[in-house]
Amino acid sequence: MKRYCGFLPKNCLWVFVSALVVSVLAIYNISAAFTEQVMIASGNSDVNKNRLIRVVMDDNYPPYVFRDSSGSVKGILPDQWHLWEKYTGIRVEIIATQWEEAQRVFNQGRADVIDTIFFTPKRAKVYDFTKPYASIPVSIFFDRTISSIPDCLALRGYAVAVKSGDACISELREKGVNSLVHYPSYEAIIEDAAAGLVKVFCMDDPPGCIFSENIRLPTNSAKVLNSTQASFKGLFKR
After folding, report:
1. Considering the entire predicted model, what is its pTM?
2. Which is the most buried residue in 69, 142, 164, 184, by most CB within 10 A?
3. All residues at 6 or more sequence positions from 224 whose CB lies less than 8 Å from its CB, including other chains
4. Rg over CA atoms, the chain
5. Are 189 and 142 a contacting pair, CB within 8 Å?
6. How many CB atoms lie within 10 A of CB 45?
7. Enclosing domain of residue 214
8. Sign of CA dihedral 36, 37, 43, 45
């Protein structure tokens, strides 16, 4: 299925609003689930006042998390975690950084939770996941000079830009797509696409549409990956 994104602000706005609604609706469920576990463990809400959890996440994944012009971390997830902090009484320290670094921080034990992460069988062998709280479409975006990309086999003739640490990397490699060009962020991919240096890239739809619309980038997109409905989950070390 092909969907034009770059010059359709209504479509991009729909993705933005859908993501916002899903996440807002999820706030209560996430807070309730975490709070129930905490109350069972502590037996006393006063104990929570002295507790602290460190949550690491991507710092450039709009509308879920991003930095404003002053460098402050904003978005749905920071707001959500601040509400959770208020609801449970447990202090939350948010660590926002590039996605690959966020995973490194978590794996080194410098954070208790990693957010904005997709479930994969490989990750499930090492980590404990919460229930998913949002479904995120993942697309292959391609320059409009390319007529179509019907399946992953068609990607083998292109260099595909990906964000380092992204879940789509393993799936692309499993399908024989090995000409991958790693970038530190989605925004960096979009900047090179605007400069004509990137013709094909893999990206989650919400930030993909927002970044593309911000610079009026003309792209098409195709759903050729199994992860087109990947789910956001909170992640804890076992």
Report:
1. 0.74
2. 142
3. 140, 149, 150, 151, 152, 154, 155
4. 18
5. no
6. 13
7. 2-13+138-229
8. negative
